[in-house]
Amino acid sequence: EGEQPEQIKESEQVRVIESVSEDGKPKKKKIRTRVIKKIKGDKQEVTKIETVEDDDKQPETTVTVEEVPVEEEQPEQIKESEEVRVIESISEDGKPKKKKIRTR
Description:
Elements: E1 7-20, E2 26-40, E3 43-54, E4 60-69, E5 83-90, E6 96-103
Antiparallel strand pairs: 1-2, 2-3, 3-4, 5-6
């Protein structure tokens, strides 16, 4: 009678990493991440399903379930996002250099 309806939010992200193995063969690694958020009453259940597929191996799946209390969302006036990129390179004298680029 007094139960609140269950809200479900689902998102999926697929990353493909291509690399070259030591013997010169191209390898592909596919990482699929699904996040399912269920909100029921004052609790939120977050389920993360991560599947890693390598060319020569069986797919490996990891499932993580967290249950956390739902915090009331307050509207934000200013939303600041910051992106930090790190560029690694090797200088002419053979020393590795790191360069950080911060974007706001």
